[in-house]
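Deliverable D4.2, example record:
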Amino acid sequence: MAGAGLGLFLVLGACLVVYVHKKGEAAKPKWLTYTNSDLGLRLEYPNNFEERVISEESKEAGVVWEIKREEPPALFSFRLEDSLGALKVTGGTIFEALVATVNRRYPERFPGYKKENYAELVLANEKAAQFDFTYTGADGQTRVRQRFVIVVKDDVAYYLSCQSPEKDFFKSEKDFDKIINSFEFL
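Output generated by the structure prediction step:
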């Protein structure tokens, strides 16, 4: 009788382990692929983000694609700027000119701007710059944290922007990093 009880206990334990594993797997988002053949690029994003319609104002600013998640709150956008060859006249590369522009203009552009981190990296086999900074949101109260990545290929700049309320940023940071690191040219 004790053997039957032990067997039943082991079977129930195994069922519990399988249930917990399946429940955990169901909670993980599936990853989708955004491809833009016209621009020759691709990146991946979690399915718990929803694609947004790009406003005319955003289109004029070069925004090509934007996704948003309600919980935890997060926004990712991708934009580009082309025909930047003239920036080479400044004496350096387009990449160096754009990094200098961010360092000079962002403190003026974002209220309460504070640079948290800067790193240079390689993304999609190209040199890239990653800026992490915080600023005061449009409501005048919320601190926003933004991760902003610049990649330059030929005379085109590609900007990847991830943002969230500062208190929630670290809940989305792994997703942001995975989206950024999936960026590739076709």
